[in-house]
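Target protein
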Amino acid sequence: MTVLFGTSIPVGQAQAQVHAAVGVATAPAATAPAATAPAATAPAATAPAAGAGRTPAAAATRRPSEGSVHSWDLSTGVDGPGTRFVTFLAGCPLSCLYCHNPDTMRMRNGKRTSADEVIAEAGKYTRFIAASGGGATISGGEPLLQPVFAGELLHRMKNDLGLHTALDTSGFLGARATDALLRDVDLVLLDIKSWDRATYRKVTGRPLEPTLDFARRLADLGKEVHLRFVLVPGLTDGRENVEGVADFAAALGNVSRVDVLPFHKLGESKWEALGMPFTLRDTPSPGAEQVAAAKAAFAARGLTAV
């Protein structure tokens, strides 16, 4: 679930609540399209709609790009620099034990939405975003589960709206990110959830290596990265584990910032509502000294840790 100044914003309802929050009067926002199952047969050939085929992958479909969108919002300070229009795509191949948005794990939890609709919504706030030095972030879930749609959004956010772009990803599906997609990305927010392989699999249910391979590829491309590391007491906070992530990040040469994120249980109620066991319910949040020690490990290697 997304948060706009502390308020959950489902797809199609951002405009009215954003302007209410910043004191701007506007017409009511359009209602988001209802979720529908994919058609059983291919649609009849029609002229592409405005905005269709902006990227090579979208052009190959001969129809407007669509994807499963969970929600969107405006955020400040947590999804890249400045105030940003953040689009949360639905679906994720990982099952992180501490996920605070478990309602984004399944694509069926999103709404079928066109790229045109997302771009039109983001376009309402470009002056406000530009004034803050912000941009647009494609997040999730895992946006690379829908690489064509994510690529279309990134391309149009950057080229049509002139916004700084960020891709928020675990890196597990990094092989799905084409070089063309990455050319439209100014910043990658990359999660490395553990250095110890067994711990990584315990946390996510997946292997670590695809994420490391993607990180190395980003370094080879000279793509700026903000690395994110969640500090979980008794799970990811071991000294060797933290230092392993720090050594790897420092060796890449393209990591401009590290966010050490203290574990919290704000998503516990969502797990319960979905009938899913939250196995970290008895795990405490790290203390200030633990967080400071983790940041110091990154700083000691010349990285900016916040």
Strands lie at 3-4, 7-8, 66-76, 83-89, 111-114, 135-139, 164-169, 187-191, 224-231, 255-262.
